[in-house]
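so my prof wants the structure for this chain in the tokens format not the other one, which i didnt know existed until like an hour ago. anyway here's the sequence
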Amino acid sequence: MNDFLRKNWLIMALAMVKFLMHYLLYNSSYDLQRDEYLYLDQANHMAWGFMEVPPALSLQAYLTLLMGNGLFWIKFWPVVCGALTVLVTGRIVLELGGGLFAQALACLSVIVSAYMRLNMLFQPNSLEVLLWTTSFLLLVRYIHTQKPACLLWLGVLFGLGLLNKYSAVFFIVGTLVGLLLTPYRTLLWNKTLYLAALITFVLFLPNLLWQLTHNIPFLYHMALLSKHQLQHVQTSDFLKDQLLMCFPVLFVWTVGLVAIFVVKSLRKYLLVGIIYLTVMGILIIFHGKNYYTLGLYPVLLAFGSLVWERSTKQGWQYWLRPALLIIPLALLIPLFPLLYPIWSPEKTEVFARNFKELGLLRWEDGKDHPLPQDYADMLGWQELAEKVAATYQKLPEPERKQTIIVCANYGQAGAINYYGQKYHLPQAYSTEASYLLWIPDEPPFKNIIIVDDEPDPIEAHFKYYKEESRIENPYAREKDTQIVLALDADNAIKKAFYLEIKEKKRPFGL
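here's what i got, hopefully its the right format
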């Protein structure tokens, strides 16, 4: 144990810094992010799959629910994944033979990069980065030891990766391409590799069966994603973002990538470089989002840190080491409020104007806005729940029992369900995302509270129809979303609503 602490004390300390900073620096002006509400609601609908993601995150949501659904436990999962990513990155450095300086540079590089924002959100991305980084560690270890256990554990990680996020396929394809293009192609005749593949398949099988029995809703989700978001992803912006996401340590990961291909002693790790290039190529072809690549960089940071350590071992170069550690921090400080919400939205808006040209304020719609999109997606939700509750509580008790809440998008429904318990609100429905799978075919109702930014003109089907309030937070992405109270629905609108539900469910065999 003492020997373990002696070798790992620095990376463990930096992992703890990574863990604590997320709780100490988060500004309380912000709510949870839009997607987090959806993922938290999965705990109330446990299954082997969902419209958007496999089931791994729902288990985290369920455990969070058991622990009270408080902010600490919601953030615990991405934060602990971020801390473990720092730890595994340090372990890669140790596996490569790096010393304290390489460990410090590599771990610090993870801390000051895009993982800062990524690891504050309850989403599958943090676990994906951890799984990819750990997979690289196993590949490096296999290159050193040729132990079959490394391949078997790789099969486990691939299976868990597919249960977490389907983009794990990119890494698997990259690994296969890397094997084919390197001397490790001999593994294709190794029964251990096929046993590892069997492990992956068995782990993924429950979700695969769920997808098949629901007519593969993932394809429907990807079609929507491509239509509304991925079409705005330009290759030039994607490549520029690769430089910006880890900008403070650009001099580390680029050196690591190049070194794998050109430094003779590192060419045995060519598999790592080929995985990076293959995944990048796939994402460029399919217009993947910029952050889909973030699982690729910790291993490059480890290699780059090793190269810098070897290049500064003696002479005057040795005195470059303090500068190499200071540079990432110095580059981070000017951008820090845009990487992590440490300030109020008002103060952040003023600050953000200076960086508009870098594309940091560009949303998925391809337009620039006052705040980064993630920040805008963390505002207005409590306001929404409070205003829906105020509308609901206006109704007499008998009318409340006959009232349902219908939302235009999953963020609205998720936020109302998350905050609604303290207001005794009924479950909010939506026909978007996984809420389509959860909504009853014919929910009984007399009255509807409609939450929508552009409500359909259906007032003729109600005896009373009035906008009660709307979201006023100027920085919220949901700004101007309306809360409409509609009383005494006629049979025509009920039938139309039930028909809409059934029509939208039909593609999924429901």
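also thought this was worth mentioning. The mean pLDDT is 93.
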